[in-house]
Write a structure and sequence with these properties.
Layout lengths: L7 H12 L4 H13 L4 H15 L5 H17 L16 H10 L13 E8 L7 H19 L5 E4 L2 E8 L12 H12 L11 E6 L5 H12 L2
Antiparallel strand pairs: 1-3, 1-4, 2-3
């Protein structure tokens, strides 16, 4: 998104890459800037890689390491924006969802309700082949479907064709029929995708996992493993 790049660190990084200079210091500043803007670490790394690709040069490992170091420093300090929303989808980043889980009594507060269990629901609608505009449209539609099926107040996140939703289920162990909102979400996705608007799995793959607990980094690592690359 163009507004993500209106910061001085971008100019400094691009200048260093163009001149073949050491990009470590500006890359670290860029990582910090992107974290403050609520941008996920994966997206930040991918965008930096595209910069190198545009210049036709291999990605400098030291630049990636510096960018990640700056991003982590801001995230660990709590400076990152509280309303970290992915552009287009209206859902939060996976990193922000991990912060919310870790901060609410390390996730255990979700389990204090009488009966039932809370699960992390993953909705995967990634396409086998899709152009970049179709991919953007896919994530916008996925975000809208999640909000329509589960509501705006349910903790949720998105990562490139996969939505993550924290759902309270009445029964334990959980079966497909026990997860509220799944059928509604499936119906919405089928009605939109069935019209051939974007190439994708139909009507989406729904899987669920236990809520991860622990420190912020532990929860983030668990969520990233759950969602996948």
């Amino acid at each position: 998104m163009p507004q993500d790049w209106g910061v001085q660190a971008v100019v400094a990084v691009a200048s260093a890459v163009a001149r073949g200079a050491d990009p470590s210091i500006p890359a670290r500043a860029l990582g910090a800037s992107r974290a403050r803007a609520g941008v996920g670490i994966v997206e930040a790394i991918v965008d930096l890689a595209y910069l190198y690709e545009a210049y036709g040069t291999p990605v400098a490992v030291r630049a990636l390491a510096a960018l990640a170091d700056g991003w982590v420093a801001v995230t660990d300090s709590g400076e990152a924006r509280a309303t970290a929303i992915e552009a287009g989808s209206g859902l939060s980043t996976v990193e922000h969802l991990a912060l919310r889980l870790a901060d609410v009594a390390t996730g255990r507060a979700w389990e204090r309700q009488e009966g039932g269990v809370t699960v992390v629901l993953v909705i995967d609608v990634r396409a086998g082949e899709a152009s970049r505009p179709a991919t953007w449209e896919r994530d916008i539609l996925l975000g809208a479907a999640v909000r329509r099926a589960f509501g705006d107040d349910v903790p949720s996140a998105i990562l490139r064709g996969r939505a993550v939703v924290l759902v309270r289920c009445a029964a334990d162990p959980v079966t497909a029929s026990d997860v509220p909102g799944v059928e509604r979400c499936r119906e919405v996705l089928t009605s939109w995708w069935g019209q051939g608007e974007v190439p994708s799995r139909l009507p989406g793959r729904f899987t669920w996992f236990p809520v991860p607990i622990g420190s912020r980094q532990d929860v983030l690592t668990s969520l990233q493993l759950i969602v996948g690359p």
